[in-house]
Amino acid sequence: MKTNNIYDYVERLNNLLRADSRQAIAAHGLQPVQLEVLHYLSTCNHYSDTPMAVTEYLGQTKGTVSQTIKVLEKKGLIRKYSDKNDKRIYHLKVSATGKNLLIKTIPTAMFANACEVLPDKKKLEILDSLKQLLTTVLQINNIKTFGVCHTCRYNGKTKDDGYFCNLVQQPLTVNDVDLICREHKNQVTPNSVTKNLMK
Ligand code: SF4
Fold it and tell me: Is 152 a pocket residue for ligand 1 (Cβ < 6 Å)?
């Protein structure tokens, strides 16, 4: 019974947010999925800004992602650049125009206004519950976490107090560690599914 109730609340919120988002971006000639891709690209690191990673994160088909990328590029919201080690791979970066659009549209006014009236303590409780729900869904279903870098088990420290990725053996900047990553691995044990994943 409780599972159905949780599902109903999440679904209703999802419907409201999608409808509001659709309205907010209509003037810019965008579809919700195109805004989702733009938003994802603004939060991910350079290991995760390829069309393949976008496909994995959003669970969309390659064809849909490819069309979406074309639209975003045509509108000047993203730009492509080749990987410096492998010219067959290209990365996608949000342009200044794209960043401005995101500032205006995410979160939508409807959602931001509602959150404003909630006390801070309640917002933290909601945040914690949503983190637990997301973590559990991802772990139980063996789905990639796409978590924030500083919460990853491969995130290490260098002697001079910098950051280092022990998976790809590359240094990380302060900015990198706040971004999400397709290679992220949770630090919790498989049985501790209720621990926090994303911060
Ligand atoms: S530490 Fe983890 S999240 Fe960060 S870049 Fe490396 S694999 Fe990705």
Answer: yes
